[in-house]
Fold each of these.
Amino acid sequence: MSSCGTGCGCGSNTSNTRPLITKNKVNKDLQDYWETIYNVIDSEKSGWYEKTPEPTLQLIEKSGVNKGDHIFLAGAGTTTLVDYLLDNHYTNITVSDISSTALDILKERLQDRANTINWVVDDLTNPEKLEQIPPIDLWIDRAVFHFFTETDDQKTYIDLLNKLVKTGGKVIIATFNLKGATKCSGLPVRRYNELMLKEKLKPNFELQESFETLYTMPSGDTRPYLYTLFNKLYN
Ligand SMILES: C[S@@+](CC[C@H](N)C(=O)[O-])C[C@H]1O[C@@H](n2cnc3c(N)ncnc32)[C@H](O)[C@@H]1O
């Protein structure tokens, strides 16, 4: 596989042939796409790897989440955030991704600690198993929602989030900001500012906190991100 050319360091192919567009075939194609990526990349060299997920940690702190609250990681990949949550004695964690390969890599890294986590392989834009998980106190998404460029997919994702997050629960969403790249991992992304995300989450959520930050990839390239923390007001 050739480099994606986005500076993602993902090893992904960026040919113009989009592999995942037609509805009803989306799931399998999208899943295969991400499985391939996780089969070929070294997680620590990926264009989204964080040794310490500092900006997310800041927002977790501000969310006021308790150690036993249900924390959901949407599109977790192999994130080091899971290690952090376990190190800091959070006990009720669901980790989800469309790629079982990503979750297997994560499980292997965590060894015995993996047994304390609820693992779900599912598609956030066509959820089946995710519909069944218990209510969520804190939903965390870094660099996932921005891949959903179709309005229908965004709506399915937001509907799921609305259904699962408790009233008074919190949502962290981090996307590329308006100065960010237009592609990642060979896929187009939608970029956001604070107002655009507020629009997506209204009327049930209010913005509690947001900031922009420049992420440095393992390759040395940078990507401007927007981090947001929302509070759920109503059901
Ligand atoms: C750029 S990576 C970010 C991974 C992780 N959140 C992090 O910050 O390290 C995007 C992740 O979203 C997952 N993903 C993409 N589309 C998805 C979907 N429709 N449903 C669930 N996960 C998805 C991918 O498999 C990948 O792990």
Amino acid sequence: MSAEVQCPAGCGPMKYKTNRNKKIRVFDPLGYAMIFAGIPFIAAPDNLPFDFLTSNLIVNMGIGIGLLVLGAQRTALVTTDLRCNTCKGLILESKSIDQRLKGDLLGLSENKAEYIRTALSSSKEESRYACPDCGEKMRRIVVPYEDGSHRPNALVPDIVEDIQNLSTVSRTVEIDGCEGCDMLWFEKAKRERMLSKDSTIIPKT
Ligand SMILES: [Zn+2]
Ligand SMILES: [Zn+2]
């Protein structure tokens, strides 16, 4: 995409925003080294294997926690999206679509990115927005999803699960996107958050 992307809603240029996904770890040697270095400070602040540091327990704990937090920050997956500060719209580009809209590890639900791309390529509904990259009209799709924060535990008996199922929230979210540019446009950034949450799944059909 070009350096400056215009908001499809006509508000003007959009801004890149960097996000750290605290749950997904990437390979960052220094980050992991910091995490491991922090462990002895917390596990045994009064009995460190080296003596050049203070023997103050609180200071040692502080150093340990600091190392863990900084290490965790470094190893967290960084994704970027484009935001419009005027209308609160959000654009996901190709790489971010893959990173943010994965399927779950157990394969119980659709890969969200794959589902959305397939739906986009077969959608006949024209969006009212034009793609900011190629200028063509985008396509609009409706994506069903379940907010799995209340999802039943796989280990509980069926009868309990039936009751719990009632609280599983099924919803749909409307997305516009350009298949050619592999780009998604969310009129409200909130919708993207709902869909990219770890607990959200797209039910298999
Ligand atoms: Zn806007
Ligand atoms: Zn396009």
